[in-house]
Amino acid sequence: MIIQLCGLSGAGKTTIATNVKRKAIAYHTPIEIIDGDTYREFLCKDLGFSKEDRCENIRRLGFVASRLSDHGIVCIISAINPYDEIRHELAATYEHVKTVYIDCPVNELITRDTKGLYKRALLPDGHPDKVSNLTGINDPFEAPANPDLHLRTNEKSINACTSELFAFIRNTISSQLLPVHAQIRN
Ligand SMILES: Nc1ncnc2c1ncn2[C@@H]1O[C@H](COP(=O)(O)OS(=O)(=O)O)[C@@H](OP(=O)(O)O)[C@H]1O
Ligand SMILES: Nc1ncnc2c1ncn2[C@@H]1O[C@H](COP(=O)(O)OP(=O)(O)O)[C@@H](O)[C@H]1O
Fold first, then answer.
1. Any ligand 2 atom below 6 A from CB of 136
2. Would you say 149 and 164 are in contact if contact means Cβ atoms under 8 Å apart?
3. Could you tell me the residue range of the domain that residue 43 belongs to?
4. Domain count of the fold of the chain
5. Per the domain annotation, does 171 fall within a domain?
6. CA distance 68 to 76
7. Longest Cα pair distance anywhere in the chain, in angstroms?
8. Residue limits of the APS kinase domain (predicted)?
9. What is the pLDDT of residues 94-133, one digit of tens each?
10. DSSP-based three-state secondary structure for 42
């Protein structure tokens, strides 16, 4: 199974994915986090933040996820993943892809600003430190219309969001395994 997260920087993708992975160890559910930030240092080092590059980024993360997923590893793609087009492409290309929206209003993210990116994006034009294409401020984010799971991280605690995503993964695994058991019995 491939869980493609999407959500603005600072919304909570890494925090929730990491906590879910920790929780899954006790249940012997293998989880791999495929994190945009990490892969941008290696496999996706050549990519920037244009629409084309962001889509290519997700395409590559999706490919890695598909290889691992074929071996029964639950892959969580933790990236901003801002465009409908590429989210749909991933879901159409690979089996068992679920979209999870990690949602937080931008005003709250400006307050969190864990990486200082929002402060820099809000600098006046022409300022040497200004970030010019930060998603949600001066670059688009297309909120998914019908995500498989929608987590509002400004309304629920980290623990509550972690439990919801974890339960979603467990339920999806069970429902996908049921027909297989039925086939074996028949
Ligand atoms: N301009 C701009 N816009 C968005 N993000 C920026 C930008 N510049 C740097 N960063 C940092 O890069 C991380 C986003 O990379 P992703 O691979 O997740 O992005 S994408 O899915 O290809 O849109 C993102 O990581 P997260 O904060 O974990 O989301 C940022 O730390
Ligand atoms: N309900 C929540 N779920 C996830 N993170 C939360 C929540 N509430 C507050 N936070 C905080 O928001 C920040 C999210 O950062 P991070 O996980 O790196 O985001 P992202 O990976 O989406 O950029 C962390 O500082 C985390 O403690």
1. no
2. yes
3. 2-154
4. 1
5. no
6. 11
7. 69
8. 2-151
9. 999 999 999 999 999 999 999 999 999 999 999 999 999 9
10. coil
Structure tokens at 49: 């933040």
Taking the C-alpha atoms of residue 31 and residue 173, their distance in angstroms, rounded to an integer, is 12
CATH of the domain at 82: 3.40.50.300
Q: Which residue shows structure tokens 């996820």?
A: 65
Asked if residues 12 and 84 have their Cβ atoms less than 8 Å apart, the reply is no
Does the residue 99 lie in any domain?
yes
Closest CA to 76 of 48, 97, 94: 97
Q: What is the pLDDT of residues 123-164, one digit of tens each?
A: 999 999 999 999 999 999 999 999 999 999 999 999 999 999
Question: Is 90 part of any domain?
Answer: yes
Torsion of CA 183, 174, 1, 13, to 10 degrees: 170
How much is the mean pLDDT over the chain? Answer: 94
**Does 142 fall in a domain?**
yes
Ligand 2 touching residue 69 (CB < 6 A)? no
User: How many residues comprise the chain?
Assistant: 186
Hey, whose CA ends up nearest to atom 6 of ligand 1?
134
- ∠ CA 38-81-125, nearest 5°, is 90
Ligand showing the shortest atom-to-Cα distance for residue 37: 1
Distance CA 45, CA 32 (A): 20
